Amino acid sequence: MYQNKKKEKRLLPYLFMLPAILIFVFVYAGPMLATFVLGFTDWNGISPGFDFIGLNNFIKIFTDKNLMEPLLNTFEFTILTVVIQGILALLLAVALNKSFRGRNFFRTVLFLPCVVSMVAVGYAWSLIFNPVMGPLGLIAEHFGWQFLANIKWLSDPQIVMYSIVLVNVWQWTGYNMVIYLAGLQSIPTHLYEAASIDGAGKVYQFFKITLPLVAPSITINVVLSTMGGLKAFDLMYVMTNGGPGHASETFAMASVDAFFRQKNAGLGSAMAFLMFIMILFVSFVQNKLLSKREVDV
């Protein structure tokens, strides 16, 4: 009797963990394993049978121009958003970390876009960029800025990716800014006071005090922005559907297109698994490299 109660007591924590374990297995681990296996097949997503074709799908990803272009677009989008968002968010955080009237208002306004649905953001900016009735073109014409009014924001293959980067930066800079603000507010003020007494200017204080001590926030923002960029899908899908041509198509969009439109679930699964490995590897390397630069306060 005593031994049975003792055994039940030992099993009780595992019973509480069971729902979370089941969710992890059936929602995450199971589909991930299935995606990995299907990446080595020629399954069309419908028929009950399929054949294993080895590494053919993975080889096709790196040899097919139509698949390499979305991969390069993804890297371009990720690099641009990480760099621009990071710099802009840090500068805004430094400015809004000072005490002045209306500071909380500006913080709120800059943070608000990230709580809006990305689908809604995509549709709204598509209307703004509309060359016929979009407010951006109408305002530009009103002020005589023809160079701005004549830009084909979403229909020019040379510009479309930069237009989407602009929208992404507009939406997520405030989110990065809040993380930087949290890091800035953890820096002791006496460090700046001591530097001022020693004659250090604002620029010197920024590079020698602020930047090293917000390194943990930089790590968080860079890793999160990179992960978001590498799996970008919804903003491009809503605004351009990958067009014109494949100019704004990302790797995630190409994976979904292969799986559902081309009925090549094996190739789509291989692309999805490769994207997972790519995000995991890049995030791990970034975290390792950036963590070395972090300084304890």
First-residue to last-residue Cα separation: 55 Å
Strand content: under 5%
What structural class is derived from the secondary structure elements?
Answer: mainly alpha
Principal-axes shape call? globular
Biggest pleated sheet: none
Mean pLDDT: 90
Q: Compute the number of strand runs.
A: 0
Rounded to the nearest angstrom, the radius of gyration is 25 Å
Helix content: over 70%
Verbal overview:
This protein has 14 helices and no strands. With 297 residues, it is an all-alpha fold. The longest helix is centred in the first third of the chain and has 37 residues, at 2-38. The radius of gyration is 25 Å and the shape is globular. The model has no long low-confidence stretch (mean pLDDT 90).
Compact summary:
With 297 residues, the chain is mostly helical.
